[in-house]
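hey m, so remember when u said the tokens were messed up on ur end? i reran from scratch. heres the input so u can diff it against urs
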Amino acid sequence: MTTHPVTAPATDLDQLCINTLRFLAVDAIQKANSGHPGMPMGAAPMAYQLWTRFLKHNPADPGWFDRDRFVLSAGHGSMLLYSLLHLTGYDLPLEEIRRFRQWGSRTPGHPERGLTPGVEVSTGPLGQGFGNAVGMAMAEAHLAARFNRPGFRLIDHYTYVIAGDGDLMEGVVSEAASLAGHLRLGKLICLYDDNRITLAASTSLSFSEDRAARFAAFGWQVLEVGDGNDLAAIAAAIEEARAETGRPSLIMVRTRIGFGSPGKEDSFEAHGAPLGADEVLRSKERLGWPAEPEFLTPQPALERFREALERGESAQREWEASRARYAVAYPDLAAGFALLLSGELPAGWLEALPLFPADDKGMATRAASGKVLNALAGRLPQLFGGSADLNPSTVTALAGRGDFQGDSWQPEDRQGAVGGEWGAAGANVHFGVREHAMAAALNGMAAHGGTIPFGATFLTFSDYLRPSLRLAALSRLKVVHVFTHDSIAVGEDGPTHQPVEQLASLRAIPRLVVLRPCDANESAFAWRAALSITNRPVVLVLSRQAVPTLDRERYAAADGVLRGGYVLADFEGSGTRLILIATGTEVSLALKARLRLREEGLAVRVVSLPSWELFDEQPAAYREAVLPREVPLRLALEAGSTLGWHRYVGDAGEVLGVKDYGASAPGERVLEEYGFTVANVCGIALRMAGK
């Protein structure tokens, strides 16, 4: 570990700027009577140094693609970020600073992507921003390897993070830091606000590990700044971190929470509550700041911060000029890059979607999904992702598209490598057994832009990554998750691996689209839906066991998936009408039961309902045509929790689901014991019909 000793004091202008940053944030926190004053007070010098000396960004164009990415992982310190955005010239006027944490403001309690210009990701749950930053650095490295050429560094930016003690305690950070170290992400730099205080106590009560040794073991360069007010030492450490191309860097900056506060410096009381009016005045007096007016921004300080506008516009002009020369030298690559920036999919990509012939034996929907994914891989170079150590099980390897690795990592044992290019240009990411870091990194990739990120694991392990999945939905990020082994039919692995409540819990997440296809062709259209949706994440829920590939000349076309639900097989005959509604593997069970029930004098419609979310978005007339109110007898079939199904079956309907955990036995036996048989379905239906 390299230690940067105290070297030189800040200039008067530097100190003026730092105090402007500190007290702009503190005044907003005090006015709102809520917030985290410790972050602006103690972390202001390192944030100031980073933003005014190193960060490549253009406040006039927050979306410029080759900007450096900055993530405030310790999102409770949001006023530090908002103050920086306002002072450097982003579209965040002082009035928004005054309205911190108020209804309708662009300065919410934690940073939210899409709400505040310059906020890259939604942070707040600790550790998430750090994991997002790892994904951003992965995307930068991947795109740079694909598009940069001699003399042209089209993609050349850093990802910076400010993280605190709470971030480093979270398990997702350990997962993500381990992955980043393995991948040799040299353009990822984390400034660790090492103030040794948490919300409830000093870290000595709960956090005594050697953080430097831990990150060094992960493969990071670790640097130390002993005084968080020493701008020269901070700058030297950042310079050293930028010079290290083969490892990510952790800069441990020893700060003091509530710095300058006579009564709360180094106190956990400065963490989760405002300083209080009297303590703010005492802090201003101690640091030589006028008590009035509030929200003071001296003109020399504002001019210093606003230099970011000219620097950013100049850097962007140079980049655009280089990009124009690149287009002449490499027209095909330039066209591909322009397509990535547009967010659009290549013309003709739908033609690559396979169609599957009818087959009573069929295949698992995970296998069909793998075939679809690989058919699309050649047409969609944006696809970038992998699984949490489950490629053979989730069938998510992109054949021939290479393995995403640090270029300097050249192991002799490459078992499980997909093949093709080895290095940052590879499209297959080996996330290892790190579900949560995988999902957090996917969010970072999506926020970065230029890729369509996807990840995969078993459905039951979606619980490990739920916080990141929720943030993807909150942030409207385009991420695709492939969750396989979707029910108690997993069989012998038993209840620990057999999902029951996961489908219901996923459907409870606002903005998340859940798709559970019933056969190979529905799987193809599920991928079409997932790739066409641009403003929210999508989950594909897929089976381990084989299901018949339906004869689409006999049954409705599989493009009904795009509407979330459709009539697969309609009423026949004049008997009592009943609707069987099913998803996934239970659809073929419903079709078999329909044939038997027809012999019993019932006219049965089978509705395939792979996506509640897409179906609910259809016009009322369409939904009524699929599930007419005049047919109240409805039976839903799904090998999972029944929670939520009554919205579709109504008061007169019933649901055949799973009300307890699974069991260890062959999958067919487990399904039989839980009632997922033709005989049981028919028995329930006949009872409902009064027969």
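this time it looks ok to me. The mean pLDDT is 96. if urs says something different then somethings off w ur setup not the seq
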